[in-house]
Write a structure and sequence with these properties.
By secondary structure, the chain is an alpha+beta fold. The chain has a single domain, classed as NADH Oxidase, CATH 3.40.109.10. 38% of the residues lie in helices and 17% in strands. It is globular, with a radius of gyration of 18 Å. Bound molecules: flavin mononucleotide.
């Protein structure tokens, strides 16, 4: 397992950028475990431990892609032949796809669902930052039938008990990741003073 040499934690987060087009090598078993360990360090009100991950390894990605395309069409969403081909081309190179869900804690008076969602988002962000720190790229997508019932269910997440929040494609960038233009956070910030 390598962490990018010379990159401290903050510098690593500042340089992370999503990269959709990834290829092998993907993370090995030890690196995957480490990424998931960072996920379960996410803030978690009442220790719900609701995060769930379905690991779709390279050998199964073609079968999963078939399933996702068929399910999306059955769900009533048009997928043109070109879009299907683009999706298949993309998926054919991805070494690891992670299905992302959390177990809903229904009617939890202490932890409303927005907090459960936020905790899942924080967990996914930790994986993305960890992947980047280890020299991989990742891409969070809610395509591939994320919003159908069939795709989450096929991954083990029925919609009564789980909220499915998409997929992370993880691997080695096919094209070098160029720096992102980020906004000035001070334009989104104000200092509050009492009236
Ligand atoms: C929950 C979630 C779902 C997303 N789904 C998609 C998607 O389906 N398609 C897409 O092009 N980008 C999607 N994105 C955006 C990308 O993952 C990525 O954040 C965006 O391209 C900006 O890149 P950055 O992470 O380097 O800022 C999604 C982001 C989030 C947080």
């Amino acid at each position: 397992m390598t962490i990018n040499p010379g990159m401290d934690h903050v510098e690593s987060m500042l340089s992370r950028r999503s990269n959709k087009l990834v290829q092998a090598p993907g993370p090995d078993a030890g690196q995957i475990k480490l990424m998931l360990q960072t996920a379960v360090c996410a803030p978690d009100h009442s220790a719900l431990r609701a995060w769930r991950f379905a690991m779709i390894e390279q050998a199964e990605i073609a079968a999963f892609t078939d399933l996702a395309i068929a399910a999306t069409r059955r769900w009533g969403r048009e997928i043109t032949a070109q879009k299907e081909q683009n999706t298949r081309n993309w998926m054919s190179k991805v070494p690891l796809l992670i299905g992302l869900a959390y177990k809903i804690s229904h009617d939890n008076s202490k932890v409303p669902e927005i907090e459960q969602t936020l905790s899942m988002g924080a967990a996914v962000m930790n994986i993305q930052n960890a992947a980047h720190a280890m020299g991989f790229a990742s891409y969070w997508s809610t395509g591939l039938g994320s919003y159908t019932e069939e795709v989450p269910e096929a991954l083990g997440f029925d919609s009564l008990d789980y909220r499915f929040v998409g997929f992370l494609a993880v691997g080695t960038p096919i094209h070098p990741t160029t720096p992102a233009q980020r906004p000035d956070p001070m334009t989104m910030t104000h200092v509050w003073k009492p009236k």
